[in-house]
Design brief:
InterPro entries: Glyco_trans_4-like_N. GO terms for molecular function: glycosyltransferase activity. This is Glycosyl transferase. By secondary structure, this protein is α/β, with parallel strands linked by helices. 42% of the residues lie in helices and 17% in strands. It is built from 14 helices and 13 strands. The chain has a seven-stranded parallel sheet with strand order 3-2-1-4-5-6-7, sandwiched between helices. α4 crosses α5. It starts with a strand and ends with a helix. The mean pLDDT is 95.
Length: 353
């Protein structure tokens, strides 16, 4: 069975790693022939070139309905019998929907939806309706899809997976400091402001060891966050490291904060924390609660409540036994959301289609 995996992203973020994991598993499984289609210069194609049993199809970097891209996919459909087109981002969903409109029953379209925002009106939302199946990477996303008008029979839930073997376990820095880390693009949904305001609360709390916060990521709100830290007087405790490979920095964190305020899917950052061996503290967005059980494999605070986040941070910073409990349970949870389980669920879905 040929599976054409479409992703038009130009970066190597969480969604692209899901395509990589899925293609790797398909390439190793009997009966599947995966092809990754992405912009010619996309990092995803460079990583995919290392995989056995996986072909790559470089696409034009133009708009999603670029005729050159449609022509390249048409050759696979009409000459090689590729039937399943699986899109992994909003732009590739538009491309797959266009293919469906042009070639009808010759292709079966699957979309993976990674954010919990309602579908938009017009073409940007209706492109999903052309698919035979739409996968929400959390139950919250699936519920939102149905509420947005997607027929429930077409909606499936498959959580994103992670390969813990790619991550290094936490190491002892030996410097006596407590490092709170956060990983995420500097966009409104990630909640950087909540963490910065929590830092101001922490400065007024007693009994804490020396501590600092390190932020990994880049984006439009980078300078805004820096200004807020200065206004609240916490900039001396803050290191803003820009975009980095999180795997290189996670082992030097002591706590991982995930203060997302909306739109979250099946958080890869939470799973990265589990794989690394970090206690995780997260907001109570519904998708986050599908992963984290408060007091068991992480701590949960009410969304946007920076004072509550500060109290959670204080508990972990002063409670070694609690931190270890969260780490131990988190390690077990990571196995429940492995890349292997994710890929097996998609293989089963392809079979039913």
């Amino acid at each position: 069975m040929h599976i054409l995996l479409l992703d038009l992203g130009r970066e190597m973020r969480g969604g692209q790693w899901q395509v990589y994991y899925l293609a790797r598993a398909l390439g190793a499984a009997e009966g599947f022939e995966p092809i990754i289609a992405a912009p010619a210069q996309a990092p995803l194609l460079k990583h995919a070139a290392e995989l056995e049993g996986v072909r790559v199809l470089p696409l034009s970097g133009g708009r999603e309905w670029d005729p050159r891209n449609l022509h390249a996919i048409r050759k696979l459909v009409h000459r090689e019998g590729v039937r399943i087109l699986h899109s992994h981002c909003a732009k590739s969903a538009a491309l797959a929907a266009m293919c469906k409109k042009l070639w009808g029953d010759k292709v079966v379209v699957v979309h993976s939806r990674r954010v919990s925002y309602p579908l938009k009106t017009g073409w940007r939302g209706s492109k999903y309706l052309r698919a035979e199946a739409v996968v929400g990477v959390s139950q919250e996303i699936s519920n939102v899809l149905v509420a947005s008008g997607m027929p429930a029979v077409k909606v499936h839930t498959i959580h994103s997976g992670i390969d813990c073997a790619r991550y290094t376990r936490k190491r002892n820095r030996g410097d006596g400091r407590m490092v709170i880390g956060m990983v995420g693009a500097f966009t409104g949904q990630k909640g950087h402001e909540v963490l910065i305001r929590a830092m101001a609360e922490l400065q007024n709390m007693d009994g804490l060891p020396p501590w600092e916060v390190r932020l990994i990521g880049a984006g439009e709100l980078f300078n805004t966050v820096a200004v807020l830290a200065g206004q609240l007087g916490v900039d001396s405790r803050l290191a803003m490291l820009g975009w980095q490979d999180s795997r290189e920095f996670l082992p030097d964190f002591d706590i991982l904060a995930v203060p997302s305020v909306d739109g979250e899917g099946s958080s890869g950052t939470i799973k990265e924390g589990w794989c690394t061996g970090l206690p995780v503290i997260t907001s109570d967005l519904p998708s986050n609660l599908e992963l984290v059980q408060d007091g068991v494999n992480g701590l949960v605070f009410p969304n946007r409540d920076h004072e509550a986040l500060a109290r959670c941070l204080h508990r972990v910073m002063t409670g070694r036994a609690l931190a270890q409990t969260l780490v131990d349970a988190g390690h077990g949870s990571a196995t429940e959301f492995s890349d292997t389980r994710m890929a097996q669920a998609y293989m089963a879905l392809y079979g039913t289609l």
